[in-house]
Write a structure and sequence with these properties.
Helices cover about 45% and strands about 15% of the residues. By secondary structure, the chain is an alpha/beta fold.
């Protein structure tokens, strides 16, 4: 099967660059089952990192364009490469292939690992939004806490040992103070540090890598011949009536 990991920002042009895209693609393929091929693609323009609802909104149109192109190009599924799952519902309206979001995938997985789970995020300003995402996924009652590391997305990889120490500290607070039985990384760059096993061992609770969770979710759907329900995510009425994606836009 072929899965597209769609970065909803111009990573290849930003501070991380094309080398980071290649590194993430290699990691995803190392996590994938035999017979799965993952391609990492990014949009031509948009925010360099996504750390607010405003930045999420900015990235959605270009990301949906690219997801639709991936379906036309024969991919079997797409992953939205941002923990906030920007544009997930809209992308599902416009495609028939499975489109999964790392947030939804990892929330549903973490909810099944114990009585309560926590999310490690970037800033305090993102806490309410991630609580809302847990509500949308139907697992809000199992969310013990959302705790911020205070390290910006673009700084997470600058000092990996410092980042690891901070993640261990915050995850430990989730387990000891908030009674979380498991926790997940609420940022894709956190997940692509590939530290889940080390941090899990340090704090004594399962750690969910959101990138790996999304990949396995996509693989499971494709292997089972399943995709999102068109009763839940119907094609927009204007497009059902014959308008094209391009004619919906007013110049």
């Amino acid at each position: 099967m072929r899965i597209a990991y769609v970065v909803p920002g111009p990573m290849s042009k930003g501070p991380m660059g094309s080398k980071e895209m290649q590194r993430r693609e290699a990691l995803l393929n190392s996590w994938a089952f035999p017979g799965t091929e993952v391609a990492v693609v990014d949009v031509p323009d948009g925010p360099a990192s996504i750390e607010s609802a405003y930045e999420e909104a900015l990235c959605v149109p270009a990301a949906i364009d690219l997801i639709m192109k991936c379906e036309r190009d024969g991919f079997d599924a797409a992953i939205i490469g941002c923990f906030g799952d920007p544009g997930l519902e809209a992308a599902r309206e416009l495609t028939r292939m499975p489109v999964v979001g790392p947030c939804e995938s990892s929330l549903l997985l973490a909810a099944g690992l114990g009585h309560k789970f926590s999310i490690l995020t970037i800033f305090d300003s993102l806490i309410a939004g991630q609580e809302l995402l847990a509500h949308k996924a139907g697992v809000r009652e199992k969310l013990a806490s959302v705790r911020a590391t205070g390290i910006p997305v673009l700084d997470l990889m600058k000092d990996p040992e410092r980042t690891k120490a901070r993640l261990i500290e915050v995850a430990g607070q989730c387990v000891k103070l908030d009674r979380a039985d498991a926790f997940l990384f609420g940022c894709m760059t956190m997940s692509f540090l590939d530290l889940a096993d080390e941090i899990s061992a340090a704090v004594g609770a399962p750690a969910v890598n959101a990138g790996k969770a999304a990949l396995k979710h996509a693989e499971a759907l494709v292997s089972m011949g399943l995709s999102h329900s068109k009763a839940a995510f119907p094609m927009p009425a204007k497009m059902q009536a014959g308008q094209t994606f391009e004619t919906l836009r007013v110049a």
